[in-house]
Amino acid sequence: MKLLTDEQHAQLLANGRQQDPVRGTAGEIDFRPVVKLFTPDGACTWLLTELDPEEPDIAFGLCDLGMGTPELGSVRLSELAAVRGRLGLPVERDLFFEADKGLSAYARAALAAGRIVT
């Protein structure tokens, strides 16, 4: 399975282009996550909102490596494609995930719970 559909890739890239000029300012955009990736045989989860327009292998979102400390940050898609869970299964895309709030709300809930809650 591809990590991203063509439509998700295009949306993540569009979000990155829109965010780029306002990143780090009060005008930063709180996008809804476009995709949820996870390890089916582990505790890792990623909610991604955008791709870096200058380097589209780098995604931004809420990252949870299953150690009780989810955080906002960047991750390389090529590295996620190489990740394997405890039983050797690759990262998968949650086919049924639909974001219902902005990334900051998911981040607040994740910090409170010690894991991403969707």
Verbal overview:
This protein has helices at residues 6-19, 77-82, 103-113, and strands spanning 35-38, 45-51, 58-64, 71-76, 92-93. Strands 4-3-2-1-5 form a 5-stranded antiparallel sheet. With 118 residues, the chain is of the alpha+beta class. The two termini are 22 Å apart. It has one domain. 26% of the residues lie in helices and 22% in strands. The chain is built from 3 helices and 5 strands. The mean pLDDT is 96.
Largest sheet: 5 strands, antiparallel
Structural class: alpha+beta
Low-confidence stretches: none
Number of helices: 3
Report the portion of residues in β strands: 15-25%
Residues in helix, %: 25-40%
Major β-sheet strand ordering: 4-3-2-1-5
How many structural domains are formed by the residues?
Answer: 1
Rg, alpha carbons:
14 Å
Q: What sort of overall outline do the alpha carbons produce when their principal axes are compared?
A: globular
Cα(first) to Cα(last) distance is 22 Å
Number of strands: 5
Give the rounded overall mean pLDDT: 96
H and E string:
HEEEEHEH
Name the features.
alpha+beta, 5-stranded antiparallel sheet, 3 helices
Short description:
The protein has helices at about 5-20, 75-80, 105-115, and strands at about 35-40, 45-50, 60-65, 70-75, 90-95. The chain is an alpha+beta fold and about 120 residues long. It has one domain (about 5-115).
Secondary structure blueprint with pairings:
Layout: H1 6-19, E1 35-38, E2 45-51, E3 58-64, E4 71-76, H2 77-82, E5 92-93, H3 103-113
Antiparallel strand pairs: 1-2, 1-5, 2-3, 3-4
